[in-house]
Structure formats: structure tokens, C-alpha cells
């Protein structure tokens, strides 16, 4: 099937990035958010991020203008009814996502594919609450979307081959690479990445190293482009904790228990870059380790 119109639900950091890459690839994009202010902010940040790509000669001023002209916004979810594909990228709460799909379903065309950018919620369970589990898939972009090459494609138990092929085609058109993952907690990337980050926090908690030595060890000793604690701050410590909880609950193995120090940072509201403090303090000129 031909996908031309894409609806994106949620204009946060992921929704912005997804709208950005879709529009550059030629799709017509309609972005929805409950919060009108988020929609305005979203367009401004897409504009700014595209400017950066123009400056580094990744795109031209003309392709930027054409892409921006393909993006529109709405606070009315029903407006997404004409979409060929809907990508849900709202807050990571199952009840929020279920409510979005329930409100959207009466307005959709029969051929519309539904997808979720969830990092951790079961695709099979989300799909089972809709009228089209065979046309429902996990479509997991990485942050920041315009930069990261990978998209995980997650089939629910009922997802049909045509839906998989259609989303695989979108990934190719975006110039990105797809990896197929089965629908188990954390899929592939977070199943491997989050326990490593959690272990880095345990290493800090037990005093084996401090923030600087742990990050330096993994950068210089394992050739990671960013240390695990700096990466955790970038992702958001609340997000890291909630994914560890999903792994712990879903796989019922104590090896996934979240580090108490990670919980403590989240309880303090030190969530990383977005609150200006996490394993590093970002309020000054340069990030300063908090331990
Ligand atoms: P975010 O908090 O930046 O944005 C979420 C947006 O959803 C907000 O603008 C909020 O107003 C909006 N929203 C909430 N309820 C809504 C509703 N009922 N209808 C429409 N919009 C609604 O979150 P994010 O980091 O962009 O994450 C979004 C999704 O992407 C989550 O499922 C998350 O797990 C997933 N994800 C996040 C990352 C990451 O690194 N942040 C990476 C991959 C996937």
C-alpha cells in the first residue's frame, strides 16, 4: 500500500524528530498534541534542527522550506482520520496510549496502519485493545531521530506481513536502517543498553568508581562515544528507571533490578539534562559530576 499522509500523536522530543524526518522524506505530516503550546514549540524546534542540517550541508534551504510546508499541526485528534499511517509518540503511559487509540479508531479509514513508538510497552497488548491488531506495529525510533540511523520494527503476535512490509518501506524511504525485534520487554536496544546503564549506576553506588572515572573508562576502554552516565542523563533518568522496571517486571529476573541510586536521583527530581541535573550538573558552563 502507498503511504502518503502520516499522523503523529505527541509533539515531544520524539514526535518532533519523527515529523522532521518524515517531512524531509516527502510525507505529508499532521502532528497532534493535547497541549497547544507543545505544538508551537515543536515547529520551532524542527525549524532550528533543520537549520543545523542546512549549516552542515546535509540538506538545502529549499528542501528545508519544502519539508516545513508539509508539516501541519492540530489539537483535534479526529483530524488524523485521513492518515494512511499513524505513529503514536505520546507520553510513555499505557493508559494514555490506550485512550489515544480508542479516541482515534472511529475516525480512521479501514486501511490505516497504527503504530507506537513506545520504548517498553507490549505491542501485542496495545494492539489487542484496537479494532486492527493485524495492522498494528511497534515503530521504535531512536533519540535524536534526525541523527540516529536505526528504527526497530516490532511485530505484535497478530501483525500481518503487509503491515511489516509497509513500515519497512517507510524506514527505507527515510534513509534509515530497520532491525526486526520480537515483542518482549525492551525489544533489542533497551534490553541490552539499559542493564549496562543500570550496572554503571551500581558501579557508582558501590564506590567502584566515580562519575568521571566510570564514563572515562567506557569511552576510552570500550570505545563508546559517550559514557553510560552521560548517556543516562541524555535519555532521562526517569525513562531509564521506568524501562528497568519494565524489564524487571516483564522478565521476572533479579538481574534487572533497578539500582537504588537511580531511584534516588529520580525521587530527587534530578532527571538528567531535561532538569539540568542528573549524574552531571548542567547549570554552569561545563557539566560537573554530581558524585
Ligand atoms: P515527551 O514527554 O517529550 O513528549 C510526549 C508528548 O505527548 C507531550 O508533548 C505531551 O503533551 C503529549 N501527550 C500526552 N498525552 C497526549 C494525548 N492524549 N494526546 C496527544 N498528545 C499527548 O516524550 P518523548 O520522549 O517524546 O517520548 C514519547 C514516546 O517515545 C514514549 O512512548 C517513549 O517511550 C518513546 N521513546 C522515547 C525515547 C527517548 O529517548 N526519549 C526514545 C525512543 C522512544
What does it look like?
The structure is a single chain. By secondary structure, the chain is of the alpha/beta class. The protein has two domains: 5-182, 3-Layer(aba) Sandwich (Rossmann fold); 189-279, N-(1-d-carboxylethyl)-l-norvaline Dehydrogenase, domain 2 (Orthogonal Bundle), CATH 1.10.1040.10. It has helices at 13-24, 36-55, 61-69, 94-104, 123-128, 161-173, 189-205, 211-222, 228-235, 237-251, 260-268, and strands at 5-9, 28-32, 71-74, 85-88, 113-116, 136-141, 150-155, 177-182, 280-281, 288-289. The strands form two sheets. It has an eight-stranded mixed beta sheet with strand order 3-2-1-4-5-6-7-8. A two-stranded antiparallel ribbon has the order 9-10. Helix 1 crosses helix 2, helix 1 (13-24) crosses helix 3 and helix 7 packs across helix 9. The model has no long low-confidence stretch (mean pLDDT 97). The structure holds nicotinamide-adenine-dinucleotide.
Which short descriptors sum up this protein?
two-stranded antiparallel ribbon; alpha/beta; N-(1-d-carboxylethyl)-l-norvaline Dehydrogenase, domain 2
Small-molecule binders here are: nicotinamide-adenine-dinucleotide
Hey, roughly how much beta strand do the residues contain? 15-25%
Tell me which CATH architecture of the largest domain applies here: 3-Layer(aba) Sandwich
CATH class bucket of the largest domain: Alpha Beta
Shape: globular
Number of strands: 10
End-to-end C-alpha gap: 53 Å
Count of domain modules? 2
Instruction: Give the integer mean of the pLDDT values.
Output: 97
Low-confidence stretches: none
CATH homolog superfamily of the largest domain: NAD(P)-binding Rossmann-like Domain
Amino acid at each position: 500500500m502507498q503511504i502518503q499522509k502520516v499522523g503523529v500523536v505527541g509533539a515531544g522530543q520524539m514526535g518532533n524528530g519523527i515529523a522532521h524526518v518524515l517531512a524531509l522524506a516527502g510525507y505529508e505530516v499532521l502532528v497532534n498534541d493535547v497541549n497547544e503550546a507543545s505544538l508551537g514549540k515543536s515547529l520551532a524546534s524542527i525549524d532550528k534542527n533543520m537549520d543545523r542540517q542546512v549549516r552542515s550541508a546535509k540538506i538545502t534551504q529549499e528542501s528545508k522550506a519544502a519539508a516545513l510546508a508539509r508539516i501541519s499541526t492540530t489539537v483535534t485528534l479526529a483530524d488524523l482520520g485521513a492518515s494512511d499511517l499513524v505513529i503514536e509518540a505520546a507520553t510513555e503511559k499505557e493508559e494514555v496510549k490506550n485512550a489515544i487509540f480508542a479516541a482515534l479508531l472511529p475516525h480512521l479509514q479501514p486501511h490505516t496502519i497504527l503504530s507506537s513508538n513506545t520504548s517498553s510497552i507490549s505491542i501485542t497488548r496495545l494492539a489487542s485493545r484496537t479494532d486492527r491488531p493485524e495492522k498494528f506495529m511497534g515503530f521504535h525510533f531512536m533519540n535524536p531521530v534526525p541523527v540516529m540511523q536505526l528504527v526497530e520494527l516490532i511485530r505484535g503476535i497478530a501483525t500481518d506481513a503487509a503491515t511489516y512490509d509497509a513500515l519497512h518501506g517507510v524506514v527505507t524511504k527515510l534513509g534509515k536502517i530497520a532491525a526486526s525485534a520480537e515483542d518482549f520487554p525492551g525489544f533489542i536496544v533497551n534490553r541490552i543498553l539499559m542493564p549496562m546503564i543500570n550496572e554503571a549506576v551500581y558501579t557508582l553506588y558501590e564506590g567502584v568508581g566515580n562519575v568521571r572515572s566510570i564514563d572515562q573508562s567506557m569511552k576510552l576502554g570500550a570505545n563508546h562515544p559517550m559514557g553510560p552516565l552521560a548517556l543516562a542523563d541524555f535519555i532521562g533518568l526517569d525513562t531509564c528507571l521506568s524501562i528497568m522496571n519494565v524489564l524487571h517486571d516483564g522478565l521476572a529476573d533479579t538481574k534487572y533490578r533497578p539500582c537504588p541510586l537511580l531511584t534516588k536521583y529520580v525521587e530527587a527530581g534530578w532527571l538528567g539534562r531535561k532538569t539540568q541535573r542528573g549524574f552531571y550538573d548542567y547549570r554552569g558552563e561545563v557539566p560537573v559530576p554530581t558524585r
